[in-house]
Amino acid sequence: MAGLLEDFVRADRERGLGTYGIHVHSDGRPPVEHRFRPDERVDLRSVAKTFTAVALGMAEAEGRLGLDDRLLDHLPELRGLAADGFEAVTLRQLTTMTSGTGHQWFAHQRIDAPDLLAEIVAARMEAAPGTRFRYTGSGPYAVGRVIARVSGADLREFLTPRLFRPLGLHDPAWHACPLGFPFGESGLHLTTGELARFARLLLDDGEWAGRRILPDGWVGRMTGESVGTGGIGHGPAYEHGYGLGVWLERDGAYRMDGAYGQYAIVDPRRRAAVTVTAHSERDGDLLTAVHDLVLARLD
């Protein structure tokens, strides 16, 4: 794979794509990577949603909850605050952005409510649960709160022995709300190389160094149990569906996707994974460059 990244590196410099680092894994070949700066930990933005979805799958495999459990069944003290219709909202719908809630929140926004979860539960419903896709950070945050309730550990604590430590991701920071719960939807900090390990774990169906880390079958469910996203207005890259914490692409590929160019694209057909961190004001152009100048050349 010598020279694989030459055109991508040139494009980044000529177009000002803002890449920090890129890592390419392709089965049977040595990994290829390029650093535009030292490989320091950065906020992965919405890539964190995939980690939260994985935590959900692990909690389900341990018998602590089910994806089709209703949130309020695990947090009954919030029933009195819930908006009409919210009582039917499930953990699956919160993960696939189909809860129907009108609550719109992302981690860069200040939290003024004493309890963000109570605010989410009380927000007016805009659609029946399961009938409409609307991208928001509210759902993954709420899922993280349920995992904390059923396990006694917040998201970061829950994933440390189950995922972070086995992958060699030492003590990653995860920004938290005023009550101390990780945001779930954003705020997780890893290097390009560290995120690449997670992408390879997904490519290898949840196994790492001969050891099963993720529940058997979970990776397939992440893409197989998806919802439609056609017509949402985010652009062509977001029209192929959304699964359990991942955006679907053509030909069976899927990606983790965070603002300003945090990407990890897993392509089972090519048996490859490409990971990028960046601070890009042209993240759509960056994603196109990754596809055209890197992934397409692995055929």
TrEMBL record:
Please give the InterPro entries that the UniProt record associates with this protein: Beta-lactam-related, Beta-lactam/transpept-like, Diverse_Enzym_Activities
Q: Where is the Beta-lactamase-related domain?
A: 35-283
Task: Tell me the domain of life.
Answer: Bacteria
Pfam families documented for this protein: Beta-lactamase (PF00144)
What PANTHER family has UniProt attached to this entry? BETA-LACTAMASE-RELATED, BETA-LACTAMASE-RELATED DOMAIN-CONTAINING PROTEIN
From the Swiss-Prot or TrEMBL record, give the protein name. CubicO group peptidase (Beta-lactamase class C family)
The species this protein was found in: Actinoplanes lobatus
What is the organism lineage in this UniProt record? Bacteria, Bacillati, Actinomycetota, Actinomycetes, Micromonosporales
